[in-house]
Design goal:
mainly beta, 3-stranded mixed β-sheet, Ig-like_dom_sf, 12 strands, Ig_sub, Immunoglobulin-like, MPZL1 protein, globular, 6-stranded mixed β-sheet
């Protein structure tokens, strides 16, 4: 039998949960849900960062950061003036809302939560499909 030494050296991790894919009608507001679990108390050092990878693009654009109770939306981004913090870290919710979704907003949205000393294993990714009004599945 192997000794159970391994268990005592595990590092706790933040687990980020997002839907795999959401459909949003063109011109409407979208809530991008992102929740997480952490065994550590949510501290003032906790932070959330969101980035966006447009469909067909190789690079990600960081567009939103939340730290110390304050949202920091990016200045020169595709979502300028359209982002609202919709989460509550004390409830383990790191969601955001984007108003007036456009076809150019199609792509993958990445939600990354840090809650030191917990480490993140894998950020959450949501594939967003903006569709014509009246065509939502």
């Amino acid at each position: 039998l192997l000794p159970s030494l391994y268990l005592s050296h595990t590092v706790s991790a933040v687990e980020v949960n997002t839907p795999e894919e959401i459909f949003v009608e063109n011109g409407t507001d979208a809530k991008l849900p992102c929740t997480f679990t952490s065994v550590e108390v949510i501290s003032s050092a906790a932070s959330v960062s969101w980035s966006f990878q447009p469909e067909g693009a190789a690079t990600r654009i960081s567009f939103f950061y939340y730290f110390n109770g304050k949202p920091y939306p990016g200045k020169d981004i595709p979502f300028k003036d359209r982002i609202t913090w919709a989460g509550d870290l004390n409830k383990k919710d790191a969601s955001i809302s984007i108003s007036n979704m456009q076809f150019r907003d199609n792509g993958t949205y990445i939600c990354d939560v840090k809650n030191p000393p917990d480490i993140v294993v894998k950020p959450g990714e949501i594939r967003v499909r903006v569709v014509e009004k009246g065509i939502c599945p």
